[in-house]
Design brief:
It is found in: Endomembrane system; Membrane. Its main location: membrane. It is a single-pass membrane protein; Single-pass type II membrane protein. With 598 residues, the protein is α/β, with parallel strands linked by helices. The protein folds into two domains: 244 residues, 3-Layer(aba) Sandwich (Rossmann fold); 186 residues, Vaccinia Virus protein VP39 (Rossmann fold). The protein has 15 helices and 17 strands. The strands form three sheets. Strands 6-5-4-7-8-10-9 form a seven-stranded mixed beta sheet. A seven-stranded mixed beta sheet has the order 13-12-11-14-15-17-16. α1 packs across α2.
Length: 598
């Protein structure tokens, strides 16, 4: 019997609906396959999946309950490990979040932090094959490849002497884009024009620093350089710098002031940093001027200095320097050196950039999430004598009370008492508590509540550098720290810090509870669990944490320490101290991600 051909209207409507549905699903799956494999959507969806996994503990109610259990000591197992792909995670510099933001003035490369309830409560694992870092000073020249197996810079910049892979190591010949033969000959050349030797220059800022070979080479001259670069296409340049033991910080000059006080740096250096100094009516040059100490030196190498097809940019750069009365020291090839005037003798007459002096209501040292201003900060807007040449040379400036200490009432007396107190405390740390300070095991140190920098000053003879952090809501004492020849940043500890995981050997905090409190209040703005998870993120395996506070706070910290896989011990304070406090010393255990941790 032959097939009966019915008109379409007579066919089974249910059969057609089923066939249509199956066909649609099939073609939809094919389309999805092509989208995932051949378009960026696949990458973004994979990233989204990882983010979902990271956020598994971030249901606010579940998260708050876990924080409470940890604080009370009722959470009897360690906080979970983060996923394996989070080994280099920086919460405030997460490309997956920030790539959605505006490119205008590089807004998307600045800090943008998730809300605490959006932040996963988990411990960052080390990468597979991680080893305890090579010790200083050997680390200046080589680090373990397995600790940060990112070959991109070595592949792209190896011919310029940045870094090369050699056996189990990355090695650093000391070169850079503008000094492929090494930073040492380049610095020797600069020394013909500026006082590299002799202690006149002490604090330097290297903008867009690469792997920080310039700052690393200046250490032997007694110049302490804070190098910065954003998290960008080179991915891990600041991570490499810190692994080498060179002071460095993840940062972008974009829409906000950099988190440093006014007139902090004796030398500001840009070697092919590609910062458009004269764009936006010279806003970026004005920010450099805010940071540069009167009488200090500005060095720019590379574009646009006598650079092909950049005649206008080079002319504009010279024009803005002239407008601010900078003295031209030399133009040598593609390098220019200027000297900033000592005081307020420069009259900002009508100029093409529309620059004028800031009014007295604008504190130039206020620099935490502070929008860039196009006005020029007069020297007189900050009390004290701090021009280069008026402050003592290094090392005398370390212990001489700077007049900027008067930012606090009875500031000079406070400064001297603080210096004596930390000399005693550090001696107690070394001689009685037998901490590793002064040994090759400790190179990168952080003081999370630095005040006048007394802790760092007491370590000046040790082979360490200290990142002095002044909490943004406390008195702005960071200028004092720079005046004494030390370095640091402003920060709010209710947010993650701008550094990679595993970058500090030793983290110190006096008064940890004050870091999470509202100023002048007993009410908390955030919690100790999140803060200690962040300390753990920054600390290297087998690194040391020292926390001083009241006995009640230290008991709470000790409970949390077990949850973040630290081994804590509690000690009495030094005998000379009359403050009611205890000292917790903890070691971060060297744990690794296991298959059951995923």
């Amino acid at each position: 019997m032959g097939h009966l051909n019915l008109p379409a209207s007579k066919r089974n409507p249910r059969q057609w609906k089923l066939l249509d549905f199956i066909s649609a699903v099939f073609f939809g799956l094919v389309l999805l396959f092509f989208l995932l494999v051949f378009t960026p959507l696949g990458d973004s969806m994979a990233a989204s999946g990882r983010q979902t996994l990271l956020l598994s503990t971030s249901d606010p109610r579940q998260r708050h309950r876990l924080v409470s259990l940890v604080e009370l000591g009722h959470h009897h197992k360690p906080i979970e490990a983060c996923p394996a792909d989070s080994v280099d995670h920086m919460p405030c510099e997460d490309p997956r979040r920030n790539s959605q933001l505006s490119r205008e003035m590089n807004l998307y490369r600045e800090r943008h932090c998730p809300l605490p309830d959006e932040t996963p409560l988990c411990l960052i694992p080390p990468p597979p094959g991680y080893k305890i870092p090579v010790q200083w000073p050997e680390s200046l020249h080589k680090i373990w490849h397995s600790n940060m197996p990112h070959n991109k810079i070595a592949d792209r910049k190896g011919h310029q002497g940045w870094m090369k892979e050699q056996g189990p190591y990355f090695i650093f010949p000391g070169g850079g884009t503008m000094f492929p033969d090494g930073a040492a000959p380049y610095i020797e050349k600069l020394g013909q024009y500026i006082p590299i030797n002799g202690g006149t220059l002490r604090t330097a800022l290297d903008m867009g620093c690469g792997v920080a070979s310039f700052g690393g080479s200046l250490l032997s001259e007694g110049i302490l350089t804070l190098s910065f670069a954003p998290r960008d296409s080179h991915k891990a340049q600041i991570q490499f710098a810190l692994e080498r033991g060179i002071p460095a910080f993840v940062l972008m000059l974009g829409t906000r002031r950099l988190p440093f006080p006014a007139f902090a740096f004796d030398l500001v250096h840009c070697s092919r940093c590609l910062i458009p100094f004269t764009a936006y009516n010279a806003t970026y040059f004005v920010e450099v001027d805010r940071l540069l100490r009167p009488g200090g030196y500005l060095v720019i190498s590379g574009p646009p200095v006598q650079w092909p097809k950049q005649d206008k940019e080079w002319a504009d750069l010279q024009s803005v320097a002239s407008t601010l009365c900078y003295e031209l020291i030399v133009v040598d090839g593609n390098t220019v050196i200027w000297k900033k005037p000592d005081g307020d003798s420069c009259l900002l007459n009508q100029n093409e950039f529309g620059l004028e002096s800031c009014d007295q209501s604008n504190d130039p040292s206020n620099a935490w999430y502070f929008k860039l201003r196009r006005c020029v900060a007069p020297t007189s807007s900050v009390n004290g004598e701090f021009p280069l040449g008026m402050i003592p040379k290094w090392p005398d400036r370390l212990t001489r009370a700077p007049s900027r200490a008067l930012v606090m009432r009875n500031g000079i007396d406070l400064f001297q008492a603080d210096t004596r107190r930390w000399t005693r405390r550090v001696a107690y740390y070394k001689n009685t508590l037998h901490l590793k300070l002064g040994t090759p095991a400790v190179r990168n140190v952080m003081d999370m509540n630095a005040f006048f920098g007394g802790f760092a000053a007491a370590l000046a003879s040790d082979p360490v550098w200290v990142m002095n952090v002044v909490p943004a809501w406390k008195p702005l004492t960071l200028g004092v720290i720079y005046d004494r020849g030390l370095i640091g940043v402003y920060h709010d500890w209710c947010e993650p810090f701008s550094t990679y995981p595993r970058t500090y050997d030793f983290i110190h905090v006096a008064g940890i509870d004050s870091l999470i409190k509202l100023p002048g209040s007993s009410k908390s703005r955030c919690n100790l669990v999140d803060l200690m998870v962040e300390i753990d993120r920054m600390l290297r395996p087998e690194g040391t944490v020292v926390i001083r506070d009241s006995p009640e706070v230290i008991d709470k910290v000790a409970r949390i320490a077990h949850a973040v896989r630290w081994t804590p011990t509690i000690h009495d304070k030094e005998p000379e101290s009359h403050v009611r406090e205890k000292i917790l010393v903890a070691t971060k255990t060297f744990w690794k991600l296991t298959s059951t941790s995923h």
